[in-house]
Amino acid sequence: MKKFTIVFASLLTVLFVAMLCFVGFSKDFVDPVKEDKSSVAVPAEDNPIWQKTPEDLAQYLFEKGYAKNAEVEEYVNCNVCTRWVNVGGVMDVLWWDLSGIDEASNIYKCYQTVLKEQVVDGGSAFQLPVFSVHGPFAVSDFSGYSGDPDELIAVFEAWYADQ
What we know:
The structure is a single chain. The protein is of the alpha+beta class. It has 2 domains: 31 residues; 114 residues, no CATH class. The chain is built from 4 helices and 7 strands. Strands 1-2-3-7-6 form a 5-stranded antiparallel β-sheet, with helices on one face. A two-stranded antiparallel sheet has the order 4-5. Strand 4 and strand 5 form a beta hairpin. The protein is elongated and about 80 Å long. It starts with a helix and ends with a helix.
């Protein structure tokens, strides 16, 4: 009985190694590649986007018919950005006023993380994905929008391009 167990275990090991080799050498197998999210370009300092505020974005979305209103609702700031707001009742936006922020501050470090990884890192409290970043603005949520989210992101990016 002991010989049978050893032979059976050896056979299973050989089968497992053979399956790994088959998958590894298969032409359909592609090595996993980490997605490069470092493509967010920071606009020049003289770009008008740096002078814009969430209120400007809310007004634009409302005029284009994408926002329920032109109001900005402030959220509690948790030391990751200058202002965290809901714009026009349709999207959550993080906004940084970099002119008054020390480079050693947590807010500045968070902004750099958003640019590199497109994630708002709230430490052990939360990590929030960011869908689009332009200048001091980052879109983090659009659950208040009932239409196509890609269309709303495109409108946000068109607003940035118009600057």
